[in-house]
Amino acid sequence: MPRRPVPDLRVTALRAAYDSGGLRPADVVDEVLGRIADDHSWITLVPADDFRARAAELEAKSDRPKLYGVPFAVKDNIDVAGLPTTAGCPDFAYRPDRTAEVVTRLLDAGAMLVGKTNLDQFATGLTGTRSPYGACSSVFGGGLVSGGSSSGSALAVATRTVSFALGTDTAGSGRVPAALNGIVGLKPTRGLLSAAGVVPACRSLDCVSVFAGDVAGAAAVFEVALARSLTDPWSRSVALPRRAPGTLRLGVPAAPLDDADPGQAEAFARGRQRATALAARTRPVDVRPFLAAGDLLYEGPWVAERLTAVGDFLDAKPDSVLPVTRTVLETGRRHSAVDAFRAQHRLRELAAVVEQGWREIDLLVLPTVGTTVTHAEVAADPIGRNAALGRYTHFANLLDLAVVAVPNGFTPDGRPASLSLIGPAGSDVTLLRFAAALA
């Protein structure tokens, strides 16, 4: 049978093509295999024969579940039985017996796994350059980094090789790469998507994230992946209201964003105007408590939590860890139990201020990144440039917030810009509806 063209791999477009009878999963497999490039996106690919067998299995079924024949990728700190999990460190690699719950839900819904994607080692970083499997670059060129740590997952979507991809997000890893590659990044409320079968970064803050080419695709994946897990002790259920954009009170920064470069500030001003036009009303917000909470993530003791997952490996095989990753992880040894409690107390103070603010607004709009950086700039200052990329993302999980990052055009010098739509825990669906209206 001749191969049919696959003009659009976005989730909703594929659904329509399948429903029209003009496309088969086998056609999509051939298209995806032809699009896979040597751009450092991938660590492990599903064998082509297995990929084709999955398509044949789906075609033999009488029903078409929600993600029927939709190709996707998984960040390589998320387990898939039969494939190695490396977490970006070859010597750490193991072969899990079980597939992570969140991946299983997607497979059960008919999605087709393409492979495991590159990441900043141990999900420690926001640049996409901290990997022995190669440094990833933004699809927009110009020497820009891709953002991390979910670098490969974002690139696989941005290059239109897959329809969607899973990442993880502790400090911004599901949003910064989306911003630097012009795609949608959903950082759900912590605990809504199961983290069972995920190599932890900071286990109390981690969440599985979703990258997609558009908001509708991210929403479709979120709907399927959403489930209370009995094997993830951090899993939880929260109410998910579905409010319309025109009913929402939008918070905007009360003062100029001094940490944003001029180009990003100009792009944000344009995006803020579009968001304001959708909301019922707008209110200025002091964002300093949000940013102060974010400062605690790497300046405080939470970095020590990373050692609970990989500290023993770091002790046993220090030379297996990249120098910059090792430097970050080892700062966790400086903090005492007193430091941890002191930081928890400070975070609670800031959270109380932020919670007061949610009584007056329903969502907050900020830039996803305040600047973009090149590989050369990261090489010259790996810690500082990494911190700059996370300025507007670090606080979200500490403050138990949901975020959708959406493309926001380009700066005057042609660099990608992005908006973050931020809400309290459980606002995920409302944020997605606002994001869809904004697109």
TrEMBL record:
Coiled coil: none annotated. The keyword tRNA processing does not apply. Keywords: Hydrolase. GO terms for molecular function: hydrolase activity. Residues 31-432 form the Amidase domain. SUPFAM superfamilies: Amidase signature (AS) enzymes. Gene3D superfamilies: 1.20.58.1700, Amidase signature (AS) domain. It holds the Pfam family Amidase. NCBIfam families: allophanate_hyd (TIGR02713), PRK08186.1 (NF006043). PANTHER family: GLUTAMYL-TRNA(GLN) AMIDOTRANSFERASE, TRANSAMIDASE. This is Allophanate hydrolase. The lineage of its organism: Bacteria, Bacillati, Actinomycetota, Actinomycetes, Micromonosporales.
